[in-house]
Amino acid sequence: MDNPSYQHSAHKPALGASLYVPTTHKDLLAIANGDKLAHLRSLILCTEDAVAERDLSYALFNLSLALRNMDEDSDTLRFVRVRNAEVMTRVLAMPGAHKLTGFVLPKTTRHNFDTYFAQVRHTQHLLMPTLETAEVFDDEEMRQFCRCLCAPQVRARILALRIGGNDLLALLGLRRPTSGTIYQTPLGQVIGRLITTFRPHGIALTAPVFEHLSQRAWLDAEVAQDLAHGMIGKTAIHPDQVPQIERHYQVVQSDIELALRIIDPDSPAVFRMQESMCEVATHSNWAKQIIEQARLFGIRHSSDSINNVGNGASPDTHSGGAQHGPSQSPTPSTQGSAQT
């Protein structure tokens, strides 16, 4: 089966802030077609945690109507987060399923991955498995899962791995505090290990959701840390979060200047710039990524304040402790979620 949306695979870094929308949403088709929320780079239509069991039949019916009437072409990457393998089978059988870029897989492990992959082996849908089970805390399990995903027939179909922060915290009997970032919880070290397990093999990861909608300054701080960890995207649960998150993906002018100098074939092997040592051999990959990121998200000039997006003072992220919060309370955003 041909999938016109597969052309999006050439734009892997452009996931940006992926907005989750429950498939029960009354404006599902308008959002999927870009008639509403036209600025979205990526959209995840959710049949899993965002849909109660009692509403699943309606959610799938509503999704089937949207797929049937969805535009063939879109600048937005469109995924369905399936509830389980059986739901994936039902979605793939719906007319218009070929219009999807791919699927977000729930609670994925090396033991259940093939149940999903076998269903799309002969399509061109891309996959984003979600790491949100107890296996995530087992380093050897993650290494074996990485080997599974690196199989030749599989690797090209993996767009990124998503980290299910809330599910992982739930396994520890915890909930994210209202102050602090995810990196100041026990998941901070876990995320670091996931990065060092998968990124050396070219498998990108996206950052967990930030669910406290009024804590915009902490969201700013967390996105900055996401980027420092090499994340290529982040889950958003409210449209207001999308521009705030993606504002951070704009590249500062000084980084662009540095990146261009590093990839300049006339640059020396080692040189000093912006009071830092630059080494072409070790910094070239970073430079290429920065240039691509600037192409996709633009350049932020020094006169532009990132705090303007957060509508509040940024937390003191250099202190390393969750007890150090914003010096003043950020202005709350409009409350709600993608369901409103």
What does it look like?
The protein is an alpha/beta fold and 340 residues long. The chain has two domains: 4-249, Phosphoenolpyruvate-binding domains (TIM Barrel), CATH 3.20.20; 251-297, no CATH class. Helix content is 37%, strand content 14%. The chain contains 13 helices and twelve strands. It has helices at residues 28-33, 56-69, 85-92, 113-120, 139-149, 152-155, 165-171, 187-198, 216-228, 241-249, 253-263, 280-297, 307-310; strands at 16-22, 42-46, 77-81, 102-105, 126-131, 161-163, 205-206, 233-236, 251-252, 270-273, 276-279, 299-300. Strands 7-6-5-4-3-2-1-8 form an eight-stranded parallel sheet. Strands 9-12 form a two-stranded parallel ribbon. The protein has a two-stranded antiparallel ribbon with strand order 10-11. It holds the Pfam family C-C_Bond_Lyase. InterPro entries: C-C_Bond_Lyase-like (IPR039480), Citrate_lyase_beta/mcl1/mcl2 (IPR011206), Pyrv/PenolPyrv_kinase-like_dom (IPR015813), Pyrv_kinase-like_dom_sf (IPR040442). Residues 325-340 have a biased composition (Low complexity).
Characteristics of this structure?
340 residues, alpha/beta, TIM Barrel, 2 domains, 8-stranded parallel beta sheet, two-stranded parallel sheet, 12 strands, 37% helix, disordered N terminus, disordered C terminus
